[in-house]
Amino acid sequence: MADEDLEIDMKDLERRMQGAMGSLKQEFLSLRTGRAAASMLDPVMVDAYGQTTPINQVGTVNVPESRMLTVNIWDKSLVGKAEKAIRESGLGINPVVDGTIIRLPIPELNEERRKELTKVAAQYAEHARVAVRNVRRDGMDQIKKAKSAGMSEDDTKLWSDEVQELTDRMIASIDEALEHKQAEIMQV
């Protein structure tokens, strides 16, 4: 019976590790590579109506040109807060306010900024690795509990190896995604 419960938990562990990978991919979308993309503003949160709200829920994000983003803020009272949120987001973009429209000219990335962004990408990847390792730790704790509930030594070793293999696979895919993103950022 403990073996069946643990197998269900393996699927849960894999789902949680995939969640960390999905979160990493979302964070990578926010890193700019020299071209404008609406997803760059996904991590920007605006203090609207007493709570933090994603910028795409207070205005319409558009990409009129390859080096320009615009945000058409629906509520005029939120324009200043949205501008402040963009400035403080660490994207390195200087917003220009024109009524309820915020224009975001995307500057050409210089070598120094590219290296800075690769470091940010590496930090995002490290957070994902930590999340995967935390899931691994939870899995190992479940195995220890099953062992104390009567699981054999051989089964314990088998499940531990399986959890470690899953962890190694996820870490490798995180590293691969990081390499790809860093190459994309450094491409001129």
From TrEMBL:
Main location: cytoplasm
Keywords for this protein: Cytoplasm, Protein biosynthesis
Family designation: Belongs to the RRF family.
GO-annotated molecular function: ribosomal large subunit binding
Short name of one Pfam family: RRF
Role: Responsible for the release of ribosomes from messenger RNA at the termination of protein biosynthesis. May increase the efficiency of translation by recycling ribosomes from one round of translation to another.
The protein's name: Ribosome-recycling factor
GO biological process: cytoplasmic translational termination
GO cellular component: a single term: cytosol
Localization terms from the record: Cytoplasm
Spans traversing the lipid bilayer: none
Domain Ribosome recycling factor: 24-186
Keyword Cytoplasm appears in the UniProt entry: yes
Organism of derivation: Qingshengfaniella alkalisoli
